Amino acid sequence: xxxxxxxxxxxxxxxxxxxxxxxxxxxxxxxxxxxxxxxxxxxxxxxxxxxxxxxxxxxxxxxxxxxxxxxxxxxxxxxxxxxxxxxxxxxxxxxxxxxxxxxxxxxxxxxxxxxxxxxxxxxxxxxxxxxxxxxxxxxxxxxxxxxxxxxxxxxxxxxxxxxxxxxxxxxxxxxxxxxxxxxxxxxxxxxxxxxxxxxxxxxxxxxxxx
Length: 210
Fold this sequence. Notes:
By secondary structure, the chain is α+β, with helices and mostly antiparallel strands. It has 8 helices and 4 strands.
């Protein structure tokens, strides 16, 4: 009786061991599929087809068991978008640069420092620099400030004031605020200033809001 029981236990153990050995095997094709898909992703990335590469990566993220193993490829795609943005800036294509930055930021939401430089470059490329006449020439200055106020209201821009004297900052801010208030009472404008006694020409820089 006992040998029969032992034999039954032995057979059960053998079958259990076989099951344990065979269980991981279906994962091998899945691993091979993942490896093949990653190779396709890299090839697409090398061709510069970033939109297709992004689509492939999304499919991989949905099917892969662990997203951590895809972080490296996510970073590669983000870097490619950053390079595209920098190249577009050099060509003066601000719209493409801004779009590439947005995609890079979406891929790396926890690493905003990586996109700070290109973000600042885009803002600089899309800024409007207005050199001011002599600040004591009230008639000419008034005409310039009228145009500046209209541009700020139309494009919702922030204003950077660069002058030689801190008193000029207060004067220009008040003059612009009065004009903007007449054009758009509810608009709040963000001002920044740099006072440099060596500044040769006072100027205003109108920056886009991102």
